[in-house]
């Protein structure tokens, strides 16, 4: 597959020039592939280049720039780079301006920023993460309806963030997990792995330490999501 992308990249560079947005699109796909095989430094370089090309072609506040920034931010977050949080903030700002504060893409940016800030461990950031996830949940419920798997995923993320930040008691956290489990059960049936995972978290929540919860909160539904969305939820290109 890497060879396929390299060939496609070479063809587009020869035909369109290295600074064309379509070349950046292929470069992004190649960067995603490199990231999955652990070649993170090469992937980072390609993501940064793609951001620059999209900015030159479309302007700094274009939705395509936000997507490119998101890809870079997710990669850097995985590497533990502090720059990731600020990039997620920039992505969110662009999406709020370009597609609106109540768009699903904005909800993705909110979730990404929340997961990045939650990882810092500071109390203020933990509280911010909860607020960001609450807003993402509200958007998804309004747009997708209360019984959508992405809404369930938002409940899971919110419960995990509340537990890590100590912003809710065990009963409140359990209620969020149970709500997610109810949605997943109604869609996929009681034997689906997503249902079992949520129920397991519900049972473990009172005894989990922060590091365990941080790992668990990477769980999410991947149905209907783009590659950048998969990365934000812990799935490599998400």
Automatic annotation (TrEMBL):
<dbReference type="GO" id="GO:0019894">
    <property type="term" value="F:kinesin binding"/>
</dbReference>
<keyword id="KW-0802">TPR repeat</keyword>
<dbReference type="InterPro" id="IPR002151">
    <property type="entry name" value="Kinesin_light"/>
</dbReference>
<dbReference type="GO" id="GO:0007018">
    <property type="term" value="P:microtubule-based movement"/>
</dbReference>
<protein>
    <recommendedName>
        <fullName>Kinesin light chain</fullName>
    </recommendedName>
</protein>
<dbReference type="Pfam" id="PF13424">
    <property type="entry name" value="TPR_12"/>
</dbReference>
<keyword id="KW-0963">Cytoplasm</keyword>
<dbReference type="InterPro" id="IPR011990">
    <property type="entry name" value="TPR-like_helical_dom_sf"/>
</dbReference>
<dbReference type="GO" id="GO:0005871">
    <property type="term" value="C:kinesin complex"/>
</dbReference>
<dbReference type="GO" id="GO:0005737">
    <property type="term" value="C:cytoplasm"/>
</dbReference>
<keyword id="KW-0677">Repeat</keyword>
């Amino acid at each position: 597959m890497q060879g396929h992308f390299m060939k496609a990249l070479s063809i587009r560079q020869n035909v369109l020039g290295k600074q064309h947005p379509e070349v950046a699109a292929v470069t992004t796909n190649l960067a995603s592939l490199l990231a999955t095989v652990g070649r993170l430094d090469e992937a980072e370089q390609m993501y940064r280049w793609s951001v620059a090309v999209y900015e030159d072609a479309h302007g700094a506040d274009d939705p395509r720039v936000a997507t490119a920034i998101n890809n870079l931010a997710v990669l850097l977050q995985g590497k533990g780079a502090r720059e990731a949080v600020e990039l997620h903030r920039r992505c969110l700002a662009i999406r709020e301006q370009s597609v609106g504060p109540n768009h699903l893409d904005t909800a993705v940016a909110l979730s990404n920023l929340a997961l990045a800030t939650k990882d810092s461990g500071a109390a203020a950031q933990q509280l911010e993460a909860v607020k960001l996830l609450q807003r993402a949940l509200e958007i998804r419920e309004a747009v997708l309806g209360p019984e959508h798997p992405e809404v369930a995923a938002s409940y899971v993320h919110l419960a995990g963030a509340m537990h890590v930040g100590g912003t809710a008691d065990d009963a409140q956290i359990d209620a969020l997990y149970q709500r997610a489990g109810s949605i997943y059960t109604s869609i996929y049936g009681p034997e689906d792995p997503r249902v079992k995972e949520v129920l397991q978290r519900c049972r473990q929540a009172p005894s989990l330490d922060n590091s365990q919860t941080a790992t668990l909160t990477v769980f999410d539904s991947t149905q209907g999501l783009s590659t950048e969305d998969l990365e934000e939820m812990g799935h490599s290109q998400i």
